[in-house]
Amino acid sequence: MKRFISLLLITLTTAFCAVQAKDVIPIRVVENQVNTVGMYQVGDDIVVYKEPHENSHILYRVRWNSDEFFPEDIGFEKFFAVFIEKKSLALVETVDCLDEWVEIVYDKSTGATGWIKKDDPYKFMTWINFYNNYGKKYGLTLLKGAPKSCLDIKASMEPNAKTIATINNPEMIKLNVIRGNWALVSVFDMDRTPKTGYVRWRSDDGVRYFYPSVK
Questions:
Q1: Residue 47 and residue 153: Cα distance in Å, rounded?
Q2: Cis (ω within 30 of 0) for the bond into 159?
Q3: What is the mean pLDDT of residues 12-29?
Q4: pLDDT surpasses 90 at 30
Q5: Which residues pair with 63 in a beta bridge?
Q6: 118 vs 175: CA distance, rounded Å
Q7: What is the DSSP string of the chain?
Q8: Could you tell me which of 127, 142, 147 has the C-alpha nearest to residue 203?
Q9: Are strands 210-212 and 140-142 parallel, antiparallel or unpaired?
Q10: Which pTM does this prediction carry?
Q11: Is the dihedral of CA 142, 147, 148, 149 positive or negative?
Q12: Are 67 and 85 in contact (CB under 8 A)?
């Protein structure tokens, strides 16, 4: 009986983890994906073209639901920049945006790009808009691999500005405003005392160090 219960628990845990694993949210700095301009929210049936016109070669037809992703050689992790199943939130990184088309990164492991036709012009967000929409609502997370200088909260938007506080064990990093590559934040560490100042949220060449804590 004990063995049966153990096997049942393992099976349920595995199934649970498999479902949870489909959620995609960046946790680590990625230095080879810097030429993107923002995000686009996609539906569950996407045709990816080589060029921005419907007579172009079709690279992939991407389809997904709560259980499966087609084609399997790409999958949830490689395709989505952010995917939150319970919210049906599916975002991909974009390289270029035209009136009717958007160029997306459809395979993050290789950086491969292709074009999809917009089904709604308001689904495109620049990085600034994305951070303002989600960072202000959920706060920011410092990505693993970010330089130690990102822990310094500065008095102004200059690398050599006075460091007025340091991020230690943050319970919340509240985004107040984005200004260029700097973010004005209020950091609440374990002592719950807010520390407000500027942090470098991305490098000059587009490497992101902080990311919205989308939930």
A1: 44
A2: no
A3: 63
A4: no
A5: 45, 70
A6: 29
A7: -HHHHHHHHHHHHHHHHHHHTT-B---B--TT-----EEEE--SEEEEESSSSTTSPEEEEEEE-SS-EESTTTHHHHH-SEEEGGGTEEEEEEEEE-SSEEEEEEETTTTEEEEEE-S-GGGEEEHHHHIIIIIHHH-EEEPBT--GGGGEEESSSSTTS-EEEE--S-SEEEEEEEETTEEEEEEE-TT--EEEEEEE-B-TT--BSEEE---
A8: 147
A9: antiparallel
A10: 0.84
A11: negative
A12: no
C-alpha 179/C-alpha 184 separation (Å) is 8
For residue range 50-103, what is the model confidence (pLDDT) as tens digits? 999 999 999 999 999 888 999 999 999 999 999 998 888 999 999 999 999 999
Q: Are the C-beta atoms of residues 204 and 181 closer than 8 Å to each other?
A: yes
How confident is the model over 167-194, as pLDDT tens digits? 988 999 999 999 999 999 999 987 778 8
Residues 6+ apart with CB under 8 A from 133: 125
Contact between 33 and 100 under an 8 Å Cβ cutoff? The reply is no
CA angle (136, 32, 49) in 5-degree steps: 90
Instruction: Output the six-digit token pair for 35.
Output: 């030429």
Q: 17-54: buried (b, 16+ CB within 10 Å) or exposed (e) per residue?
A: eeeeebbbebeebeeebeebbbbbbbeeebebbeebee
Distance CA 106, CA 22 (A): 16
Residue whose tokens read 């939150």: 84
